[in-house]
Amino acid sequence: MTEIFWIVVKTAIVFGVVLFHVAYTTYAERKIIGRVQARYGPKEVGPHGLLQPIADFIKLFFKEDIVPQDAYRLIFKISPVIVLAFTMANLTVLPFDKGFILADINLGLLFILASASVAVYGVILAGWSSNSRYSFLGGIRSAAQVLSYEIALGLSLASVVLMAGSLRLSDIVMAQYESRFGMYVIPQIVGFVVFTIAAFAETNRAPFDLPEAETELVAGYLTEYSAFRYALFFLAEYVAMYVMACLAVLCFLGGWTIPRFVSDLIPWLSYVPGTVWFALKVYIFIFLYIWVRATLPRYRFDQLLNMGWKVLIPAGIFNLVITALIRRLT
């Protein structure tokens, strides 16, 4: 019973910290994009607008939950729960520091890829169950997009697994620490670029936010959702961003470690807790998400599929073959 109690406590702490980060990532995103567009962003609710995420939550929580008359009610209601549940499940296998993990399973990387694949079903079901053309098209787009980019994502991570010799995320981090460069982003630069682009598409973020595409689909699969169910989709999107950012840090940027040549050059850096290094790297990747949204226009759907099938997948296969040859010869 004591062990179960501490597992519940650690899970609640991890989920709470992540949800706090999600709330204030929305604030940071609005502030950064506002500055890019020569605006202030939110600044009325609380000092410098710091209470804006809380005000948004209260507003969404108390709004009327509208279910369309012709919708398939049960599936319409559980779709956002499916997306959020399988997205949040990924947090349980992410190591945030040495020994700081809820479930250090042997197939952690495979578990995340599987959970991300299942979460997409919630988006597809949301589009279908709304019984709306806009929503249905958004769901179909999401299915095609994930089918294209999840292959590229898997290929980029397969090269990392080949180098580390393990699917356990903590083993991948330690393999990077023992390697020559201290992180895989240098020898696996092609894989990192493929992963980054695929991660944007996997999380439906600009410039690959075609399942929502306000200009032609109103809000895509979200069109008929309101109030707290809409907030669940919104929450799942930002949690998925953090999952992909953590995955990039763990598989390419050395996780909670810093390269040995850096710590040898500046010895006092080795005293900084690993969680701090991990968080800083994740924040940089999240900033990249926001920066790209503020900078690049949305792709057309045919351009998105062409990039996935004709550029990223061949690049991922090429990188995997080269990695396998090098491993075989060394």
Structure report:
With 330 residues, the chain is an all-alpha fold. It has two domains: 1-62, no CATH class; 67-329, no CATH class. 69% of the residues lie in helices and 0% in strands. It has helices at residues 2-36, 52-62, 73-89, 108-129, 133-164, 169-178, 189-202, 214-217, 227-252, 260-265, 274-295, 301-329. The chain is globular, with a radius of gyration of 20 Å. The chain starts with a helix and ends with a helix.
Instruction: Label the overall shape.
Output: globular
Largest sheet: none
| N- and C-termini, Cα separation | 49 Å
How confident overall, as mean pLDDT? Answer: 89
Q: Please report the total strand number as a whole number.
A: 0
Secondary-structure blueprint:
Layout: H1 2-36, H2 52-62, H3 73-89, H4 108-129, H5 133-164, H6 169-178, H7 189-202, H8 214-217, H9 227-252, H10 260-265, H11 274-295, H12 301-329
Helix pairs in contact: 1-9, 1-11, 2-9, 3-4, 3-9, 4-5, 5-6, 5-7, 5-12, 7-9, 7-12, 9-11
In short:
The protein has 330 residues and is mostly helical.
Feature tags:
single chain, 330 residues, mainly alpha
